[in-house]
Structure formats: structure tokens, C-alpha cells
Amino acid sequence: QVRPVESGGGLVQPGGSLRLSCDDPGSRFNDYLVGWYRQAPGKEREFVAVITTYGSVNYGESAKGRFTISRDKAKNTVYLQMNSLKPEDTSVYYCVAAEVGQQLTRGSWGQGTQVTVSS
């Protein structure tokens, strides 16, 4: 079973950038649909981005134009590059991996990584 692990969160100033990573060295991670969600305290979980095994991508409204999801198949890793960060991007970011044909949210979730955007 795939077990995604996120990394790369931290504290960044408004306007700054962060790159989150998600991988599972013990699985054929390249064979999974992989997405990012985020959840801030007191708010509902929000879809951020998804990438298919073929590299097709889709973004949530808050991510369009600022975030880029990509996958490095040689490293078996999916990245979320976040630019022009705003305080409202502060959340725990979760990676989720699903088998092809499986609904993304029913896949395997990571533990999350905290992103804080603050001056």
C-alpha cells in the first residue's frame, strides 16, 4: 500500500515561495494519481492540485497562476511549487495518492506538512 510522505513546509514571508515534496520510496509512486489538498484551522479541506500518471494537471481556484504541480519520475516524487504566497495560504498541506480509476480523496493520505505565510 502506498504511504505518501510530505516534506518542504515551513515559515515564509508573504510574496515568497516554497516547494513541497511528496514521495513513497517503498512504492511504485509513478503509477499513482497524486494530489494536494490543504486545510486551515476551522476551515474545510480544499483541493489544491492533482497530477495524473501521464502528467496532466488540474488546479483549484486558489492555486491557479501561482502554484505548479509536477512529478519527477526518476525520483519517484511529486512536487508542489508555490509562488507569490499569501497569508491565506497558511494551512496544513496534505498529499494523497490514489490508484488509477480510484477517486482521489479515497486514496492514501500523508500526515501533512505545515505551511505558514507570515511577516
Question: Could you please describe the fold and organization of this structure?
Answer:
- By secondary structure, the protein is mainly β.
- Helices cover 0% and strands 48% of the residues.
- The protein has strands spanning 5-7, 10-12, 18-23, 32-39, 46-51, 57-59, 67-72, 77-82, 91-99, 108-109, 113-117.
- The strands form two sheets. Strands 2, 4, 5, 6, 9, 10 and 11 form a seven-stranded mixed β-sheet that branches. A four-stranded antiparallel β-sheet has the order 1-3-8-7, with no helix packed on it.
- The N and C termini lie far apart (40 Å).
- The model has no long low-confidence stretch (mean pLDDT 96).
Write a concise synopsis of the structure shown.
The protein is an all-beta fold. It has strands at 5-7, 10-12, 18-23, 32-39, 46-51, 57-59, 67-72, 77-82, 91-99, 108-109, 113-117.
The H/E string reads EEEEEEEEEEE
- Using only C-alpha atoms, the radius of gyration works out to 13 Å
Number of helices: 0
* Global morphology: globular
Number of strands: 11
Could you name the ranges where pLDDT drops below 50 across 5 or more consecutive residues? none
How much beta, percentage-wise?
Answer: over 45%
The biggest beta sheet is recorded as:
7 strands, mixed
